[in-house]
Structures are given as C-alpha cells and as structure tokens.
Amino acid sequence: MKKHSAVIIAIIVFLVVFIPFASSDPDGLERVVENFGVEEQPSFWQGLMPDYKIAAVEDAYVSTLLAGVIGVLLVLLVSLAVERAIAPKNQA
User: Fold this and answer.
1) pLDDT number for residue 78
2) What is the 3-state secondary structure (H, E, C) of 20-64?
3) Which has the higher per-residue pLDDT, 24 or 58?
4) How confident is the model at residue 79 (pLDDT cuts 50, 70, 90)?
5) Can you spell out the DSSP letters for 5-23?
6) Over 80: is that where the pLDDT of 69 sits?
7) What residue ranges do the domains of the chain occupy?
8) Cα–Cα distance, 52 to 54 (Å, whole number)
9) CB 59 within 8 A of CB 20
10) Are 73 and 9 in contact (CB under 8 A)?
11) pTM for this model (two decimals)
C-alpha cells in the first residue's frame, strides 16, 4: 500500500508542477470546429468537470489543478476496482 501512496503523491506533485504549462490552445476536435466555423451545440450533459475545471472554485489555476488531481484519483480508483474484480483469487 505504501508503494501505491508514493505513486499517487508523485502524480499529484507532477500535476502541481506541470499544469501551469498546459496549452490553452484547443485540442484537435475543437480546432476542427473552429476552422470550419461549425456552431457547437449545447450538450445534454456537462460531465463531472467540464473544461477541466471545478465550477465551485473561482481561481482558474486551483480549479484546473483540483480537476486534474480528482481525475487522476478517480482513474486510479476505477483501475484498482477493475483489477480486483478480474484478478484471480489466491487458492491458498
């Protein structure tokens, strides 16, 4: 368990250091939409953290940082749950 905690802490430190360098340019699909002048339709579901931000936090840096940390933790938790569900049980 200590190994998992060390990995999680390392990922969080990585996010804290490198999030300020994240590009503010749109990603590939958003760039295509901009280039062709397609109107973006309102989505029927905004997701948990739309635009990688948490609406309750006003500071853009902190909001993006928390969204990144929460996203990483959610992915790790789901991965661990799937691993435990499909890993063979010890027959000892």
Assistant:
1) 94
2) HHCCCCCCHHHHHHHHHCCCCCCCCCCCCCHHHCCCCCCCHHHHH
3) 58
4) very high
5) HHHHHHHHHHHHHHGGGS-
6) yes
7) 1-21+58-92
8) 7
9) no
10) no
11) 0.62
Sign of the torsion angle spanned by Cα atoms 33, 37, 38, 41: positive
Q: Which of 91, 46, 53, 89 is nearest to 71 (CA)?
A: 53
Q: Give the other-Cβ count within 10 Å of 61's Cβ.
A: 11
Round to whole Å and give the CA distance between 31 and 29: 5
Q: Which amino acid is at 27?
A: D
Q: What is the mean pLDDT of residues 65-77?
A: 86
Distance CA 47, CA 53 (A): 11
DSSP-derived 3-state class of residue 89: coil
Structure tokens that stand for 3 in this block: 């190994």
Phi, psi dihedrals of residue 79, rounded to the nearest 5°: -60, -45
pLDDT band at residue 82 using 50, 70 and 90 as cut-offs? very high
